[in-house]
Structures are given as C-alpha cells and as structure tokens.
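Hi everyone,

Forwarding the result from last night's run.
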Amino acid sequence: MVAPFDATDFRRTLGCLPTGVTVITAATPSGRPVGMACNSFVSVSLEPPLVMFCAGDASSTLTDLRSSGTFCVNILGSAQGALCRQFSVKGIDRFAGVRWTESAAGPELCDALAWMSCAIDTEHVAGDHVIIIARVTGLRVNQDEPEPLVFHRGRFGSFRESTEPLAVTGTLTRQGPGGGTRAPSATPSATPGAAG
C-alpha cells in the first residue's frame, strides 16, 4: 500500500465507509438560524458525554458556531436526503421552507431521528479542517423512530438489518491466534492510485 494517491482517490476510498448524516445548527447573536450538513459526527466519550465533528476551516457556519458557543445536532431520518442537500449548498438561505423549532442550543429540525444539544469544549486544527469537541447537555429521540439516513459513495440510503446478527450476547466470539486466513497481497496495479 505504497502507491501514490491524490485527493480524488482519497475521497473515493473514504466513500466506501457508510456514515450517518446530521445537520449542525445554531443561532447567531442576532437570532438568525444557521446550519450545515455534516457526516463526520461521532461520539467521543460517555463520561463525560462528548461528541465531535469536523468543519472546513473556511466555513462561515463554523464562525457562527464559535460565536454562539452552542449548537444542536440533528440526526437525519431516511426521508430527509433533500434536506441534507439543501444544508450543503453554499450561498443560499438553507432554512428556506424548512420546518424547525427553537431550542436553547440551536434550531431543531422537524422530523429528524434525534436531537442533541451541545456546548463547544475544545477545538483542534487538523489540515484544512477544524475538529470541534463538544459536551452534550441534552438529548431527545423521535418517538416515531424513523429509519436513519445513511450516506455511502455519494448516495443516500438507509439501514437494512443483517440476516446474520451477532451472537445473542451481542459480542463476537473469540478466536485463538492464527484463526484467520491470510490473503495474498494486492499487486501494485490493483492498488488505488496506481498506474494501470
């Protein structure tokens, strides 16, 4: 795995990993709602309850989030693909035609799968992005339990339960050393980014 790769190869490979989809929202000091689509949202810690997401360092929404100090994570349901696209377009009123309610942390988008109120804890510069770590101060789950929105290889989908779930205990069985089978290494021509 030493073949060179470019940004397109990197993006395509990362696209193989399905992710959940969120919209991060906040209110500016003047009360104007702001938000952005985000699929880099993950949990960090249970005690204390911490989450994180990444935002482009040139994002104007990031500037608004910093001035607010708090934000709302809207975890999107399977029917909200168009809503996600709207919140990923620059230079438009992203809240146009969107149903939402006010909360102390930021706007809660109607019909989302769940909502988390968060307060910014720390920031870390990472390349052309900023990692935001925040403390969860409140949460709520949609009692209608819609299916989640999932992003994979540039397309939206949802979750389908496996026909072969984990063991009843919810854990994988342990194997002794050498329990797997080693496959032959990929040839350079089969490695992403290699000249063919």
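The two ends are 15 Å apart (CA to CA).

Cheers,
N.
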